[in-house]
Amino acid sequence: MRKVKFLSFAALFTVTLAACSLFPDVNKKKPVDGLDTPLAENSFYAQNMETEKYYKVKAEMLYEGDKCVIWAEESAKVKQQTARNIANIYDTIIRPRVVETFSKKDFYIDEETNRFDDMLDYANWLAGRDDGKITVLLLDIKDGYKKGSNDSYVAGYFFGGNFYPKGKINGSKHYSNGRDMIYVDTYPGLQLRLEQTYATFAHELQHLINHVTALQMDRYVMDTWVDEGLSSQAEYLYLEKNPSEKCEWFINDRNGTIAKGNNFFVWDNHREKPMSVLDDYATVYLFFRWLYLQADAELQPHLFYDIENSTAYNYRTVTNTAQQINSAWGNWETLLRTWLAANYYPQNSYGYTGDDYLKTTIRVKPIAEQTIPLYPGEGVYSIINNSFTPPETVNNIRYAGLAKDETAIDTSSPYTGDVLLTFNANTSNTAAHETGYLTGFTPATPRMAAENMHAGNLTSPYILDARDMLRRNKE
Q: How far apart are CA 63 and CA 76, in angstroms?
């Protein structure tokens, strides 16, 4: 029986992690601000994303919906009508759509003595509430955001430790509210970025379902990129359109790291570049959106459900499902190669079919390098002049020739076409990088030149995962 890693933080552009990676060792510290005293009925525990310390939030219950109870930090001065609106959006739009897409439904857990309508009902029961209503805490999340700035902020998060009594896990102390709940930011989130806040709500709800599904199935929580990919699609469910921030980040490639291969498979591994983790959120959204678009009308409605409820928890949960679209995609190398090819030629039949926005906007640019270190999952492009024969293929580096308006991808050396794709097909996302070979030719007309002139300039605050903010503050 596998041990479930259960403590998790998640925010828009977010994640689920083991407790030991999130919480500092506080065994020798004295209780801070009465944290070890019992919670009052109108108080909650929250965590400061800058200091990593827990603190108590005094809150008031503003509204009770059919499937949620809305609480708000007293100092946030949230109006009751705002709470009513949030409850209505959750009850009528967010919850039904997310449950329909991801959640197991109408199931028993022990020989038909405990029946649940869906995983959110199960989560409520698991937390000991058993009223069928999730707790939503509206608060100004302590993330260092300053009024009027373009700083990062945490739009919301889910904390798996709330399903367990407070105590020590792996030597670290956590404080539990004993509820199935989600934290939603009031500033700048609720006040300035309402649509994005609702998308965050949907994003976090998938994380909660993913977490309790792992508990119910008694398996590990999913790899970060799979969980994040599913949550990114929950945003689409609410927005009913592509999240502009993710798409624009990919297209503009502000750090130049996407062109050099950075993507979701090895999460947050290019910290030498500020905010390169946003590459991961952008690319994982596009990967899962592409997978959905490639599925037929019969498979699409249960595609993400199949991934969510798989007994696997890593890339295999994706390939096991993807092979229903194309039998060859049961192989990670083939699936990865096809998606990387789609990003260069999004209008080809293997591209973003059915999504006019992505078909006409998604672009990656070739680079003029001869060698490059590539982590597992990373791929880069270079211009082919006639043909290209790389040195003998070793380890996990693979190649392909890409051409416009061609359905076949050239997988045999010497490679022909317009562009050489060089990628690392290693299925282990903890492995080191390997050296890939490129053609070394400089593109005659660099693609996306106009967008990249603005690299690094942000016109609005960007959302950062709670986990990533905590980890970066520790470095």
A: 15
Taking alpha carbons only, the member of 182, 208, 178, 211 closest to residue 87 is 182
CA–chain centroid gap for 228, Å, is: 2
Closest CA to 342 of 293, 303, 302: 293
Name the β-bridge partners of 70: 63, 136
C-alpha distance from residue 162 to each of 116, 178, 352 (Å): 20, 5, 39
- Nearest-CA neighbor of 44 among 177, 182, 179, 183? 177
Q: Token pair 């019969």 is at which residue?
A: 298
Write the burial class of residue 391 (CB in 10 Å: 0-12 exposed, 13-18 middle, 19+ buried).
exposed
d(C-alpha 417, C-alpha 402), whole Å? 5
Question: Please, are residues 401 and 410 in contact by the beta-carbon 8 Å criterion?
Answer: yes
Amino acid identity, position 197: T
The model carries a pTM of 0.89
What is the C-alpha to C-alpha distance for residues 256 and 273, in angstroms, rounded to an integer?
Answer: 9
Unique residue bearing structure tokens 């679209």: 325
Q: Determine the pLDDT at residue 234.
A: 98
Report pLDDT digits (tens) over 278-291.
Answer: 999 999 999 999 99
User: What's the CA gap between 212 and 123, in Å, rounded?
Assistant: 6
Q: Which of 217, 4, 39 is nearest to 135 (CA)?
A: 39
Alpha helices for 218-276 (secondary structure H)? 224-239, 244-252
Q: What is the DSSP letter of 21?
A: G
Task: Write out the two tokens for 62.
Answer: 């503003």
Q: How confident is the model at residue 344 (pLDDT cuts 50, 70, 90)?
A: very high
Model confidence pLDDT, tens digit, residues 210-247: 999 999 999 998 999 999 999 999 999 999 999 988 99
The DSSP line for 48-89 is: -TTT--EEEEEEEEEEE-SSEEEEEEGGG---HHHHHHHHHH
CA distance 29 to 208: 30
Distance CA 244, CA 462 (A): 12
| 3-state SS class at 397 | strand
CB 278 within 8 A of CB 462: yes
